[in-house]
Design brief:
The complex is a heterodimer of chains A (326) and B (130).
Chain A (H helix, E strand, L loop, with lengths): L1 E3 L6 E3 L4 E4 L6 E4 L68 H4 L1 H14 L1 H7 L5 H25 L1 H14 L7 H8 L3 H32 L7 H11 L12 H20 L4 H31 L20
Antiparallel strand pairs in A: 1-2, 3-4
Chain B lengths: L9 H18 L2 H4 L4 H6 L8 H9 L3 H7 L1 H23 L10 H23 L3
Classes of the chains: A mainly alpha (326), B mainly alpha (130).
Chain lengths: 326, 130
């Protein structure tokens, strides 16, 4: 029979059901046996006499349920921890945050955050991508709160930072130009703080869409966007939950950035079924372009210097070119 | 891109973002801030996106020549973004349908954009030489 891998979408031939390895991508694929009995009807039970609850003394609630009563619905399976050795189900399901009305806002947010940050491979493999709005809301909340806390911390520590820089300048006897840093720190007034706090939610949504657009553009180039833009936006939205860590003082920004990159690579790889290489190209492409800029600049400067072409303006001690470059 | 009616989808969000970009480029004093490109300040060579801000600001003020002089790709990008914003808002207001792109067209557009960005970078490096 012919089977299709849920991860890479390639087909392969097999002669058995159960867990097996995809010959194309190496993913574990579980093929259920259509002739196997349903789990609830695995073994026919002999008819049992109706058992009545024991009559005991106690408060109400222990008696037999009234006619028409049914047990309350349990949460849908799938996002709980996978038992050891078990193959995660390939069926797609909405993220917990997409069911926030039923599960509760905070509880669903925390559960989704844990899944996206700690287990991104399984989460993005299974999450449905047709509700990107929830992902954008999830990411915008995290970015907004992280930025708000970072802004307030910067504002509160601005005076201390300025004192430190001024002291450093005195000790260096003016050999270090700290004026730009002083201007930057001093520019964080209460007015600018309020303006940034107000603008942060809008900028968060704009940033999510622009990031997703950039990633998707690069995925298109390498034919890695098989499930369309909503899948990319879903990954960027849920992975941006990690940017909540920007609220941590000092190291929060760099930790959040590195963690986001890792989660986004895994997420795009799984959600777009494109493999880690293409996902890494899309996420790291802009950074690689920056590195390429640096390497090429060094190469050009070296060649120009060796060839006696006068070097590159600004590198040979000459006057830098006009224009700011922005 | 085949959605029609007054649905507010991803394309319309991008339309609003691009319209905001026009407003900022037109009315905010970005060039007066004096922020420069750190890469260019360090190496003397423009980076791939150098001149984008100036291209957006100049084009928003109707200075087409200055915009293309700052960054040809930036000027084309700004024009494309603002045309898209106008199309998205008009489509939303009038309830039109987006044209359905042929298969493979998005990828060809993405490749063309990437090639144009690299060509723009070469132009900037050559143009910055004395």
């Amino acid at each position: 029979m012919r089977a299709r891998c849920f991860r890479c979408q390639e087909t392969f031939d097999t002669d058995r059901f159960g867990t097996q390895t995809c010959p194309h991508c190496g993913a574990e694929v579980y093929l259920p046996d259509p002739n196997a009995p349903a789990p609830g009807a695995a073994a026919p039970q002999p008819p049992q006499p109706p058992s009545l609850p024991p009559i005991v003394a106690g408060g109400p609630g222990w008696g037999a349920p009234p006619p028409g009563w049914s047990p309350p619905p349990s949460p849908p399976p799938g996002w709980g921890p996978v038992p050891p050795g078990a193959v995660p189900p390939p069926a797609q399901q909405p993220a917990p945050f997409a069911e926030r009305r039923r599960r509760g806002f905070l509880a669903s947010y925390v559960q989704t955050w844990k899944l996206a940050a700690v287990d991104p491979i399984r989460f993005f493999r299974q999450v449905r991508v047709d509700d990107a709005g929830s992902a954008v809301l999830f990411g915008a909340i995290a970015v907004t709160i992280g930025n708000w806390v970072a802004l307030v911390l910067s504002y509160l520590s601005a005076n201390a930072t300025m004192s430190f820089v001024a002291q450093l300048t005195r000790r260096m006897h003016g050999r270090v130009d700290t004026l730009p840093l002083l201007e930057a720190v001093g520019g964080l007034t209460l007015k600018s703080l309020v303006a940034q706090v107000i603008a942060t939610p809008i900028m968060a949504v704009v940033g999510l869409y622009l990031t997703a657009g950039l990633f998707h553009l690069l995925l298109l180039v390498v034919r890695g966007a098989g499930r369309g833009f909503p899948a990319t936006l879903t990954v960027v939205g849920y992975a941006s939950g990690i940017l909540l860590l920007r609220a941590l003082p000092v190291c929060g920004g760099i930790v959040a950035l590195v963690w986001f990159i890792v989660a986004a690579v895994h997420g795009l790889s799984e959600a777009q079924r494109c493999g880690s290489g293409k996902a890494a190209f899309a996420v790291l492409g802009p950074l690689a372009l920056l590195c390429l800029c640096a390497c090429l600049a060094g190469l050009v400067a070296g060649v120009a210097g060796m060839g006696g072409l006068g070097g590159i303006p600004g590198l040979d001690g000459g006057t830098p070119p006009q224009g700011t470059g922005i | 891109m085949g959605s029609g009616g007054r649905t507010f989808g991803h394309a319309e969000v991008y339309g609003v973002v691009f319209a905001l970009a026009f407003g900022v480029a037109r009315f905010a004093p970005w060039l007066a801030l004096g922020h420069g490109c750190p890469f260019r300040a360090f190496t003397g060579v423009p980076c791939a996106t150098c001149g984008m801000t100036r291209a957006f600001v100049h084009l928003a003020h109707g200075e087409v020549g200055a915009a293309f002089g700052a960054s040809p790709f930036g000027a084309l990008l700004a024009g494309g973004c603002w045309l898209f914003a106008a199309a998205a808002l008009a489509r939303f207001a009038l309830g039109w349908r987006w044209p359905v792109l042929p298969p493979g067209a998005p990828r060809r557009l993405a490749v063309a954009a990437l090639v144009a960005l690299l060509a723009n970078w070469v132009f900037l490096v050559v143009a910055s030489r004395p």
